[in-house]
Every structure is written in C-alpha cells, then in structure tokens.
Design a protein that fits this description.
Elements: E1 3-9, E2 15-22, H1 30-37, E3 54-56, H2 64-72, E4 76-78, H3 83-91, H4 104-107, H5 111-121, H6 124-128, H7 134-152
C-alpha cells in the first residue's frame, strides 16, 4: 500500500539511480541494489563508471556489510557510527576493533541528498501520490529525475 523512493545522487543532487521499494521496509537492504544499478557513461570510449569516489550516508547505512562492500570496491565511506555500535565496540575492549574512519568535513555535503529528495517530492505528480501501482510511481520518479537532469544540460 505504500512505497519509498530510493536514489543515488551525484554531488549536485542529480539522481543517478532511482528505485522504488516497499514503504514498510528498512532503507538499508536497498543499498547494495542501488550500488549494483549504478552506471555512469563516460564522455569518450570506455566502460561505464560503476564506482563512486565516496558514499555519504546516514546512520541507517552503517552496517558492517555495507562498509565491507564499499571497502571491497575501493569506495571511501563517510557514514557516522550509531551510538549502539559505538557502545558495543567499546564494551568488547581491544577485541572490538578500531572505530571506522569518518570525515566530518565531507559529511557536511550530505545535505545534497536530502535537498535532492525534497526537490523530487515537491513535484506535484509525486506529492499528491495518486498512483496505485508501484511501477507507475517509479515511472513518475524517473520522469522527475529526467526533468532535473534537463535543467542542467
């Protein structure tokens, strides 16, 4: 009955990947799916780029599996560690390991993602939410992404 828009954006808030997931589900399981759909064509010849320079996310994406996935792909992770993970790591002492690296200056740019969601949701077709089918709702979200890109082209 409900659905959420999940998307990856570039540094200027333009959507690169747009997916729709169930509204009652957590955001975290969609993260690997979003990364697998990332394809940015190059200007000249060559394969499309599939690895971002850095991933800026909120505490919901701080799972060990996400950090491992990003590390294996050589992506810089800028995700704060939640209080419960800090407590559990400190409780284990030296066996808990070191805290993950966190660049607080780069994290300030995460508001681009939030502003991008606000831009998408201000579009009347998505704000009123008259669509009954998820595929139609995703079509509207993709159409909004296209209109955002057309302003920059």
């Amino acid at each position: 009955m409900s659905s959420k828009i999940h998307h990856l954006v570039d540094g200027r808030g333009r959507p690169l990947v747009v997916l729709v997931g169930p509204g009652q589900a957590n955001d975290s399981p969609m993260f690997p799916v979003l990364l697998n759909h990332l394809r940015v064509d190059r200007v000249g010849p060559g394969r499309p780029r599939t690895t971002p320079d850095a991933v800026l996310g909120d505490k919901a994406y701080s799972a060990r599996a996400h950090r491992t996935l990003l590390r294996s792909r050589g992506v810089k992770t800028v995700i704060p560690e939640p209080c419960d993970q800090i407590r559990n790591r400190q409780r284990r002492g030296s066996r808990g390991g070191r805290p993950p690296a966190f660049d607080s200056e780069l994290y300030k740019a995460r508001n681009v993602v939030e502003r991008s969601f606000n831009t998408v949701k201000q579009w009347r077709a998505l704000a009123t939410r008259y669509d009954k089918l998820a595929i139609v709702y995703r079509g509207a979200a993709v159409l909004r992404a296209i209109t955002i890109w057309l302003k920059h082209l």
